[in-house]
Design goal:
A hairpin with a 7-residue loop joins strand 3 and strand 4. Helix 2 packs across helix 3. By secondary structure, this protein is α+β, with helices and mostly antiparallel strands. The chain contains four helices and four strands. The radius of gyration is 23 Å and the shape is elongated. Strands 1-2-4-3 form a four-stranded mixed β-sheet.
């Protein structure tokens, strides 16, 4: 019989549906530790809708793991009800690309700096 932890690590998704708070906590801790040991940068933890008890418990657990969890947020629509967890060591999200006006201002500043470096009389 396949090991549920191995399946979760292979897919990068831990499904906690139907588990008690204690079972969910044990599974989450084991999953995150194994994922970090493998060098995984981000995982999904599915807690489902339900009454919200498991959702709140998962978030409290993640908040209490600053050595392992860099941050977390909701999963994209269609990926289930849960959180995407970025593990420590994962690169931060890249900032959005600059708009045209910011590029023009940067180019203007660079051009001014270059002109100050030119020898006089040129």
């Amino acid at each position: 019989m396949p090991d549920p932890l191995d399946d979760a690590l292979r897919t990068g998704r831990l499904d906690l549906h139907g588990r008690t708070k204690a079972e969910a906590e044990a599974a989450l801790r084991a999953f995150l530790a194994a994922a970090r040991a493998r060098g995984t940068l981000a995982v999904a933890v599915i807690h489902g809708h339900g009454t919200g008890v498991l959702r709140e418990h998962v978030r409290k657990l993640l908040d209490g793991m600053p050595d392992a969890v860099a941050d977390y947020g909701p999963l994209p629509p269609g990926d289930g009800v849960g959180v995407k967890v970025r593990l420590r060591g994962a690169p931060a999200a890249t900032p959005p690309p600059k708009g045209r006006a910011e590029h023009v201002a940067t180019a203007r500043d660079l051009l001014r700096a270059a002109r100050r470096l030119e020898p006089p009389g040129r």
